[in-house]
Design goal:
two-stranded antiparallel sheet
Length: 318
Amino acid sequence: MTKLKPSSARPAKPTERKRTAAAPKTKLPEVSPAEQLLQSIREAFDSLSRQLKVIARYVEQHRDHIGLDRIQDVAERCGVQPSAVIRFAKHFGFSGYTEMQKIFRDGIAKQIAPNRDYQARIRSLIEAAQGQLSSADIAHEFIGGSIAGMQELQRDLHSTVFDEAVAMLVEAPTIWVAGSRRSFPVATYLVYALQHTDKRIELLSGLGGMSEGQLRGLGPDDVMVVVSFSPYAEESMQCAQAAVAAGARLIAITDSQMSPLADLSSATLVVPESATFGFRALTNTMCLAQSLFIALAYQTELAYTPVPPIAGGPVREL
């Protein structure tokens, strides 16, 4: 606070002193109606019926183009009847799907995610090409879809949660990693990278059905990273549940805040992956895994303090 010069200072009246002593109010960022709805959906998720949970996940994962979807499109992609979509909207206080859709449609021109627009372009491309795409055309479409997905990841990455996840890894004596099926390549890469740190690293591969035996070594100060996407591999869920039961902390890399992993985790990193020709990419997930490793390595290296060299002796590091 800037001090008044003696020549310009004058005794303040009690009311004035109180007014000048008050700290200025910080204007909180405005939460959009769409974000408010998504928060309400997350809070109510456990109490929803099976069909409404499917719709809830769809709305959360496709928020960027729900404003353009017809009710028939949403119903078809969720495998439900349109009446279920209407029931979902009414459950959250709307008169019907159209009113709910409006809050996503407002400002959609500047909010729409690149990969959602890209998916529409791919559909048009397939229809126009009529099966005449070359191998190079397919490669270009996959590369373009991955670039668009990376842009979405950069836009939506929750910095605070990422920082918390890295802090957990720094503090953990042992880091456990689990991932099955489509997520297995990410888990194995993460273990490979993390082995370049001074941490003890354990991969829960399920090889020989020995995961249960491995998990006996899990300690309450350890951290487990579980990578899993819908429909969420049972093996990965079992590892996550075992970690929580042992008192360890969980970092989830998954596709939704409504993922069953999110309920168990201390930090949930949501990864939107683009889908090209019906195949979901791993580009974003691999990028996030690499980012976790590099951020951990950076933080642990900061802990090293150079020791002044002894005259004529080698330089040592603690």
